[in-house]
Amino acid sequence: MEKKNKTLVAASLLAADFSQLGKDIGRVEQAGADWLHYDVMDGTFVPNISFGKVVLDSIKGIITKPVDVHLMIDDPARYIKDFAVKGVGSVTVHHESAPDIRPALKAIRAAGCLAGVSVKPKTPVSVVEPYIDLVDMILIMTVEPGFGGQSFMTDMLDKIAAARALADSTGRNIHIEVDGGINDKTAALVKAHGADVLVSGSYLFKAKDPAAAVSLLKA
Q1: Is there a domain that residue 166 lies in?
Q2: I want to staple 181 with a disulfide (CB 3.0 to 4.6 A). Which of 47, 94, 102, 152 is the partner?
Q3: Domain harbouring 191, CATH code
Q4: How many helices (H) and strands (E) does the chain have?
Q5: 21-45, pLDDT tens digit by residue?
Q6: Phi, psi (rounded to 5 degrees) for 98
Q7: Of 24, 42, 179, 196, catalytic
Q8: 95-139 pLDDT, tens per residue?
């Protein structure tokens, strides 16, 4: 994945029609989505279960854009080898998912992927600072992780700004990704606070004109 300051749009596959997954992926890719956001949930770290490696393996042959894997699972280091694979551009793990996520971040980078760290809404961004040298992306959740279709939490805007300030303090080009309730209105808010990767699900997949929706997110 290229690391640039332009706005990137990651289409969240949780909002796709799973009976038409290949078709839906093709629609958002053709519409201009830059990444495909792939949420992995284990039913323990978050109260829901989504898809795992089997589904990822099944779509690798049809995708043309990098996959942005978000591991919402306990002890993610165990599964890095399953998800940091060809076709995957980034893998994000949660700060809260293990006592020390450094081994997971190192494994992601060793596999040639961007290493991301995410924090739940109640966790301050400052927890990332001790290992920021291993981080290529900070994912700010603007909803409680585990379910799609939630409303955007406006009180996370200051947190996005704090993440951007931390990233910029390193002198490195670190992405600030935002996930949860992103549409044409909330996109403007998060970009104004420093986000450059926008994860959007229902807004994109349910749009009558996905290309127009992507354009509005990037505008």
Answers
A1: yes
A2: 152
A3: 3.20.20.70
A4: 8, 8
A5: 999 999 999 999 999 999 999 999 9
A6: -160, 155
A7: 179
A8: 999 999 999 999 999 999 999 999 999 999 999 999 999 999 999
Question: Which residue among 24, 39, 42, 68 is the active-site one?
Answer: 39
- By three-state DSSP, how is residue 194 classified? coil
Q: Is 39 a catalytic residue?
A: yes
SS3 167: helix
Structure token digits, residue 166: 């931390």
Residues spanned by the domain of 177: 8-218
Degrees, nearest 5: CA angle 60-63-64 = 130
The torsion of the CA quartet 38, 212, 176, 182, rounded to 10 degrees, works out to -70
Residue found by looking up tokens 């038409």 in the block? 20
Q: Give the alpha-carbon dihedral of 172, 6, 184, 178, to 10 degrees.
A: -20
Domain assignment present for residue 2? The answer is no
Q: Which helix (H) or strand (E) holds 70?
A: strand 67-72
Residue 1 lies in a domain: no
Predicted TM-score (pTM) of this structure: 0.94
For residue range 145-181, list pLDDT tens digits in order: 766 566 789 999 999 999 999 999 999 999 999 999 9
Has 168 been annotated as catalytic?
no
DSSP, res 150 = P
Helix (H) or strand (E) holding 178: strand 175-179
Closest CA to 111 of 144, 94, 88: 88
Are 22 and 62 contacting, i.e. CB atoms less than 8 angstroms apart?
A: yes
Is residue 210 included in any domain, yes or no? yes
116 token code pair: 């991301």
